[in-house]
Amino acid sequence: MSFIRRLSLLLVVLLLLGGSALAANGEYIIVVGGPSMYQWEKYKVYPHDHWWANFVHAARLRTEQVRAQLGPDAPITWLVYKQGYLDRATQEHQDLTGLIDSVREKFNLNLVWFHAGSEVIDYLNNGQSRNRVKIAGFEYFGHSNRACFMFDYSNVLDSASKSWLHENELSKIDRRAFAHGAYVRSWGCHTGESMSKKWYRATGTHMIGAIGKTQFMMEELPILTSTDGKWVN
Predict the structure, then answer these.
(1) What is the pLDDT of residue 23?
(2) Rounded to two decimals, what is the model's pTM?
């Protein structure tokens, strides 16, 4: 195992342990973006999302950790970009939304489907009565660049997105929705290069993000893959 990967794994462990006590009271929200389509990726040297569950599986691994930390009845919500899985289902010839719903059943989740970034903001602000139920944790699994969560990257358009949440829209989030010391993290590529700073200005919470690229794995949480990659907040 390379030194960079060992260091990345160590940092992940430390950060996860650091966030373990932050969601004792409140809602934990996990946002899951959609996968790319074979029609746009098949001719690329390094195609994205060979597996439809690239992001779903990583979110499932993390949810298992959070559920173990918080207990069986703590409120955990998945916000999932639905159209991406409806579109990919035609390529896979199976009911992907049904498979995602089975994760909801297994882990006692509140599953909310969305189509646009504005719906994510609306849920953060109004999904629960934020006077009573603060957001104790927020994590993102999906495509991203330095300034944007891209929910449908290479799904409708080749190497582009029509559904996103841009850093300039973060000011629409009510910062009072978050609990003090809320644990916030993006597992996508490049988020730590700009979006994390805008997130802090908008919400008052630190979002851990990557400098460089991340890679979604089969049996572990995403890792850093850039030579000079690191997690920052």
Answers:
(1) 44
(2) 0.90
Q: Could you tell me the CA-to-CA distances from 29 to 34, 38, 115, 134 in Å, in that order?
A: 16, 29, 16, 11
Domain count, the chain: 1
Sorted by sequence, the CB contacts under 8 Å of residue 104 that are 6+ apart come out as 78, 110, 111
Range of the domain at 168: 3-232
SS (H, E, C) 125-186: HHCCCCCCCCEEEEEEECEEECCEEECCCCCCCCCCCCCEEEHHHHHHCCHHHEEEEEEEEE
Helix H or strand E segment including 209: strand 207-211
Domain CATH for 90: 3.40.50
Residue 153: both structure tokens together: 């990257």
What confidence tens digit (pLDDT) does each residue in 14-67 have?
444 444 444 457 999 999 999 999 999 988 988 999 999 999 999 999 999 999
